[in-house]
Amino acid sequence: MPRSRSKALILVPLVLTLVAADRVTKSIAEANLPRYIPREVWGEYLRWTLVYNPGAAFGLHLGPYSRWIFMVLTLGALVILWRLYRAADPADHWKVLAVSLVTAGALGNFIDRIVSPPGVVDFIDVGIGASRWPTFNVADMAVSTGAVLLAIVLWGEDREAARAAVASRTTAA
After folding, report:
1. Is there a catalytic annotation at residue 122?
2. Is 140 annotated as catalytic?
3. Catalytic option among 22, 112, 125, 140
4. I need a labelling partner for 39 at 20 to 30 A (CA). Which of 54, 150, 153, 159 fits?
5. Has this prediction a pTM greater than 0.90?
6. What are the Cα distances from residue 17, in Å, to 13, 47, 118, 125?
7. Domain housing 85
8. Which of 22, 112, 122, 125 is labelled catalytic?
9. pLDDT at position 173, please?
């Protein structure tokens, strides 16, 4: 099997599965949950609470044009992710996995920005009492997990490059 195809065997199914799961769960939330009224799932720790986020992560809002600004920023991020994917070694499964997760999450929320005028559909509400994490969705989980994994992978690459540079200076001296 060609090496580039092995990357696609990670990216394509993962992105399609996560985008589908995100769309389905958001549709279920919108069809079954009243807006802004929490429904306990596991005590106060996990609740379903339907909210719409017209901005970005953690409620970042840039005024009346937030939707369009974040759509453009998402397209830019997708271009960067595509370049990271294309540059990734097919054997670097962790990097491909990280890029796939971030891509899936970005696409899921991008679709919401197109089809949901009130904003991105969020419904997963975790916390204790009044101390709550911002409400999120499946796409947000994919972006967050992928971003952390990508940071770890890139940090490891930087450390390896620094070690190689030190080693080459040492052998040259």
Report:
1. yes
2. yes
3. 140
4. 54
5. no
6. 6, 24, 25, 22
7. 3-172
8. 122
9. 62
